User: Fold this.
Amino acid sequence: MGKVRMVVFGQIVLGPAGCGKSTYCAALQAHCASSHGMARRVMHVINLDPAAESFAYEPLADVRELVNVDEVAEEVELGPNGALVWAMEYLVDNLDWLTDIIQEQLVEGDYVLFDCPGQIELYTHYNIMRRITNALVELGMRLCSVFLIDSSYALEASKFMGGSLSAMSAMVQLELPHVSVLSKMDLLLRRPELSDSQTHADAGHVETKVADDSYRLARLFLHMMSSDVELDEPEMKLELELALRPALAVYQGKESTEEQSGFEKLHCAISDLLSETSIVQFYPLDLKQDEVIQDLIVQIDLIVQYDEVAELRIGDVEEKDPDEDV
Ligand SMILES: Nc1nc2c(ncn2[C@@H]2O[C@H](COP(=O)(O)OP(=O)(O)OP(=O)(O)O)[C@@H](O)[C@H]2O)c(=O)[nH]1
Assistant:
């Protein structure tokens, strides 16, 4: 018998190891539970990382109940990376485990975050994540991929480019609506030493300037986010744009010269491509600021058209007293 289609919303939370995926899921779950109005909802989380050690959210389901990397590594005698790929292949071969949870435990209009493993080869070299998202879309889920990179990447041009290209790869491979996020902005903003050019003397003038600009502009961005300042001024808009891809400024618009190495020319070309086409734009996320989390949720709601279904349910959720089960 075919699966019953129903509209359930979801975010596929991706990004390199340690970029903050599990923390993001926990923060969104807590934020939505304590919000009012449209943002208030039960944000379910399903852990899809068979190598996860711990997380701060309450999962609806945990893939480690189906397959666990430590057991795989022992039984199949593979290293940590091979065991992870093996475990994810096992999940794909047993996708009923996941689709049954969605069909049996969720109802129309529910919202789920999928906390995914950090290995980017799962969507760059293999089609594992693609097969999982295809199965979810077939059920009728409206998905958005959310790709996180650590804000420290924004301070180094080569890292930032690598992160941008990985984000682009996820966007192309999964063919889902997509949002890229610069996570852990609180760390970037809490680094006053970045303004001290002495600290960066060894790294050279260019990287020092990038670090300074990044710090100043990221502050400007978050200030504007939290104080509802209208962005009418073209200069402010320009500054804001630069704040979202500061490291690329090192290479942007550089004329090709004889002295440049092949790699530098390649960096310039990639940087121009990323900047001119605006293919990858990062949303700077500081989990310590509720307004910033809220704004990201609203943007993703628009992308997956959450309000169409959710408005019908909002009354039900508002009426329920959050403490009534305690
Ligand atoms: N300061 C700060 N630390 C963060 C933030 N998000 C995550 N961290 C820290 O970064 C580390 C990694 O966070 P996780 O949420 O486990 O990252 P992950 O992407 O799920 O990691 P993997 O599961 O290994 O791929 C933890 O020590 C977190 O406490 C943030 O917004 N701010």
Observations:
- The two ends are 40 Å apart (CA to CA).
- Residues 30 and 57 are 8 Å apart (CA to CA).
- The chain has 13 helices and seven strands.
- The pocket of guanosine-5'-triphosphate is lined by residues 15, 17-23, 49, 52, 118, 183-184, 186-187, 287 (CB under 6 Å).
